[in-house]
Amino acid sequence: MHTPGSSVSGYTLLLVVQVVFIIVFGFCTDYAKELLPVKNETAKTTAAEPEASNLRKYPHFQDIHVMIFAGFAFLMTFLKRYGFSASGLNLLVASLVIQWAIIMRGCYEMEDGIIPISLQNLIGADIAAAAVLISMGALLGRTTPIQLLIMGIIEIAIFAGNEYLQLELVRAADVGGSITVHAFGAYFGLAVSFMLRPKKEQARAGPLEGSSYGSDISAMIGTIFLWIFWPSFNSALVDGADQERAIINTYLSLAGATVATFALSALVSHEHKLDMVHVQNSTLAGGVAVGSICNLLIHPFGALIVGVIAGVISVLGYRFLTPAILSKLRIADTCGVHNLHGMPAVLSAIFSSIYASFASHETYGTSLATIFPAMQQPTNGTEPGEPLEYVIGGYGRTGAKQGAFQLMAIGLTMAIAIVGGLLTGLILKSPSVRQLEEHELHKDDAFWETPSEESTTTTSTTSNTTQEASHQ
Amino acid sequence: MHTPGSSVSGYTLLLVVQVVFIIVFGFCTDYAKELLPVKNETAKTTAAEPEASNLRKYPHFQDIHVMIFAGFAFLMTFLKRYGFSASGLNLLVASLVIQWAIIMRGCYEMEDGIIPISLQNLIGADIAAAAVLISMGALLGRTTPIQLLIMGIIEIAIFAGNEYLQLELVRAADVGGSITVHAFGAYFGLAVSFMLRPKKEQARAGPLEGSSYGSDISAMIGTIFLWIFWPSFNSALVDGADQERAIINTYLSLAGATVATFALSALVSHEHKLDMVHVQNSTLAGGVAVGSICNLLIHPFGALIVGVIAGVISVLGYRFLTPAILSKLRIADTCGVHNLHGMPAVLSAIFSSIYASFASHETYGTSLATIFPAMQQPTNGTEPGEPLEYVIGGYGRTGAKQGAFQLMAIGLTMAIAIVGGLLTGLILKSPSVRQLEEHELHKDDAFWETPSEESTTTTSTTSNTTQEASHQ
Amino acid sequence: MHTPGSSVSGYTLLLVVQVVFIIVFGFCTDYAKELLPVKNETAKTTAAEPEASNLRKYPHFQDIHVMIFAGFAFLMTFLKRYGFSASGLNLLVASLVIQWAIIMRGCYEMEDGIIPISLQNLIGADIAAAAVLISMGALLGRTTPIQLLIMGIIEIAIFAGNEYLQLELVRAADVGGSITVHAFGAYFGLAVSFMLRPKKEQARAGPLEGSSYGSDISAMIGTIFLWIFWPSFNSALVDGADQERAIINTYLSLAGATVATFALSALVSHEHKLDMVHVQNSTLAGGVAVGSICNLLIHPFGALIVGVIAGVISVLGYRFLTPAILSKLRIADTCGVHNLHGMPAVLSAIFSSIYASFASHETYGTSLATIFPAMQQPTNGTEPGEPLEYVIGGYGRTGAKQGAFQLMAIGLTMAIAIVGGLLTGLILKSPSVRQLEEHELHKDDAFWETPSEESTTTTSTTSNTTQEASHQ
């Protein structure tokens, strides 16, 4: 009944990868200049400013840190017998890919061959990890730990390239990462899931692919902390009034999505009862759907509308689309990331395109250059010191053109994610990589030492079921 | 055995209410001025100051956000079979009433018919939601979800009016909201509970009105996060030295209440064992009892004394008063909000009256005007730009007069809460609103799809109780 | 089968201690000067600066607060039948000792016989509480609540003296508290455990000294929140670039330790399966091991190396050392604090000695005086207003000399902790203090009213085990 946790070679390889990362860090990274000691005493005062601006982001960073390491972890504990893996592997995968994300994302901001490391890189790494954890959600319970790690390594490399492409070259507006993080992570994971799809006769929910009363409560820990800190996720990369608008819009969108989720869940469910799957996931769709537009002038009522639509779409997705995808395409999506991250992210991109089309200097004033950098005029002499870099399609875009580029960003992202995911899935399926047996699906026991429940019952003096039975 | 979750009409109505909220937001709200783009470039520098001051409150806001959405949610999961409702309905009710609170509270601060929305409104909305969640605690397990939502809508409207009355017209000092939030929420909920009281023969604890080992642990998640972030709740609305004093006093009061709670719990309980109900709730009474006075010069020892008294009163309330109220008045109070919020809040108001009586310009210096605004002289020419508004009883109050107004604030608040709660209970009891059947009390299964425990046992290879029984 | 929770006298004594604390607070403490009202209006502006600098630390404080009250609490809930004690007694012990720590630590910073209280004291008190909670981890399930409280009182007094000795007199660099908190708490607790060691024939793991599936998940709440906020713990007492380096280094060290922990856990465990004990604890060893050096120029790769080594040592400790210590020395270490806190802290001290040896004004520039204060020249006229205080061995240390003092700090700390722990254990063993019976080990039921599981099973309509059995 017991199978070996994994080939020893897998975990040995993990150690080797960690050592390689250390070597890369040794040769290619150092603290950012403002974090190195000041040799010249007079230079001290001028250096104080930039470092302070990083530390000002620290509370935002910690909120995101809670989302990545506690929110995602506990949300995934909903399966009745996969809680060790959900909370443990979330920690392992994230710990590995944040290191790798610092390197991969750093490639695009090297100075003299060295990646300058500050709190900014940590925030970026945590956000990148979210993409991998979203993909993990699609595959939850269907891979070995080593497969997840391999996927994470490949995904981060592609993620970093795509992020650079969309934000720096296409210059899409996406402060909350709906395009670069949520859409990317969801469709990447679904593509991997497609490659790992079971044989025809096995394409059904397994016996352990459900929750228990207790695991549903622990999943709510994840949901609620994600819900609480989502405004920090969406607003971390902007400042001032933009940041405060991002907070307000995300807060309202989440509230709207939550109300819509409960109402729809009862209306479409069996006997009009509420479904925990919807409550745990669709309530968060409002945070995703407002991601690309949360710093725009969508106004409070706009934020609520976006949230309500996201909640409705997400519940309908769980109720009707996920079962259809499983039975028709045999794509399993354990956590339903298509409904929580995929569709709401596409919605966000579409909204961002619409709002961008109507954006102009009249409505956005001086903040237009911050929100839609490519809409600035190419020879902008009023902001000295910040040279305009190369962007696809050039500067001086009209609103409509920016709107088109928003759609290009989501289209390119989905294409890259799907192709990347398919290739990654091919690698994970290769004979040299250990696959899960069917009886190991959604079960900790294959990879974890798990406490024997029997002995608990016997030794505990207050749990009487066994005794009662044996008294008969 | 299964009854329909709720009439479809209830959840349809919820969607309608959400749409109405969106329309109201569309016509009556917009971002506060400092969050709208700057058209005039020269105006940018001057606008930077106020927005920064809002964002400075963001970490405080997030702490309160954790209390409302994680703290209250998990604290209420203590019932053995009501965890889905506790964590889920907390999220639903709060998501609905924060929207409504922004509107209702905004009525008193409209500018040109528009409610200006900033981070301040979000903080205020979260605090208002606390009042509703406290009332929900009194009723936990005794209402349908729709009844809770109806109650929340009515309660917020009354809450906003009472808050304006006490803080702007009576000008009571209440930075931690003990009067306007805790006393209001507790007595409102108890009044509703009185209206929904069971028939005489049913006034006893139901079979599911208790905890399980696991649910007591998950309730501790709520307790501990509420405990941790209470200093943020009490200090969010003040600044500088006032804020730091509020933090220190709340911290010490909670510590004192916790020690007193454990000692009393053991001393008054059966076999001198500790009672989880006390630990989960009375430890927090110190945060409530110091609420109205936490920014005053109560000094560290004063904060400890207040906390100890609150812990003692709260434990005694759970041990002796709650059972008496249930048997004599048939007022059920599932979470014991009278002991955690009600009595400690009254205590806080009494203390605030005493401390106010001794307050003077000699002791408080220049901060007197901030702490007790109505004690300023009416023609205060030293603070230009801030016109003194209308207050009941006028400015230039003596300490003793301010003390009397503190008592007036708690008296008025309790009267308004009780009358409001009774009327609300009358509405909730009306034949057009679905009531709980007796067998549905304190049970998720009536409104939630719950996992079948039987199938868990059968499929899990490590849980042997069923098998053992059937082997005989 | 039921034994009284504790002698009434124990809890009465607790109340007396609380009253004594209030009296001491009344006579010996007050708010720090900048928190007292400004009498002179012109003085207001100058006073604004220092208070702001305290409040700037508030988010860091709250992160640490989460670690102490939620992190430690839930980490210790891993035992299958000790969750009430773990989460409850953590709250009680911490609430008592933070008060006492404010007094004891305040003895060394009195002004005119009064301890000035600000947010700084609260941060210091929380950090001191960590030492006691670490010791509690070593003893978990083997003491009565009253024994824990007695230990906490004694330990804080010794802790405060040792902290002053190492930081102010020896002038060791230890911003993350690895020496003064982690090593001290671990070895103190182990020394107490040695004194309370069982008779020879009982030196084995008891029947309840293990986890259940659910308790392992709730322990992960603790692990994950500790993991998330460890960078705040290590960086709370420094500022600017030092703080940002401390954050980055701790973040990376934790990531490295986590990867190493998982790999090693699988490699050394039975059937190469992952062990939850390692995941819950050794992942955090990276935070301890980087504690004393996190603000130094260890560079990102150095932080990763430290973390990896800590993870490896910690897992090996759990796997091989803890069982050996138990069987050879009969020192029980329920949570394995020697592997999570003890050895990684010694490692940190050794690293700090090495790094200090190479420190110089050339590498550290102007920040040398902040990081290694005793390496400043004794007549430092460039920083007026800060008189140099007495330090052992005098100012103007070379790097090598500072390195030697780092080793002296860890050596002295371990000696003081062990002697203090042995004496404390002697007191706890005295006949006047109630001891645990063997059948009370690792069990809540002796001191807590626990819900009867039987009634749960009977009344719940969805739990069918009992019914099934009785149908036969």
From TrEMBL, chains A, B, C:
GO CC field: plasma membrane
Region spans: Disordered: 442-472
Membrane topology: Multi-pass membrane protein
Domain of life: Eukaryota
Listed Low complexity bias regions: 449-472
Gene Ontology terms: biological process: ammonium homeostasis
Any one Pfam family match given in the protein's UniProt record, by short name: Ammonium_transp
Domain Ammonium transporter AmtB-like: residue ranges: 57-440
Transmembrane among keywords: yes
Keyword set includes Transmembrane: yes
Transmembrane segments: 12-32, 89-107, 119-140, 146-165, 177-197, 217-238, 250-268, 288-318, 339-358, 404-428
Chief location: membrane
Keywords: Ammonia transport, Glycoprotein, Membrane, Transmembrane, Transmembrane helix, Transport
Stored InterPro entries: Ammonium/urea_transptr (IPR029020), NH4_transpt_AmtB-like_dom (IPR024041), RhesusRHD (IPR002229)
Compartment annotation: Membrane
Gene Ontology molecular-function annotations: ammonium channel activity
Family statement drawn from the similarity comment of this UniProt entry: Belongs to the ammonium transporter (TC 2.A.49) family. Rh subfamily.
Listed name of the protein: Ammonium transporter AmtB-like domain-containing protein
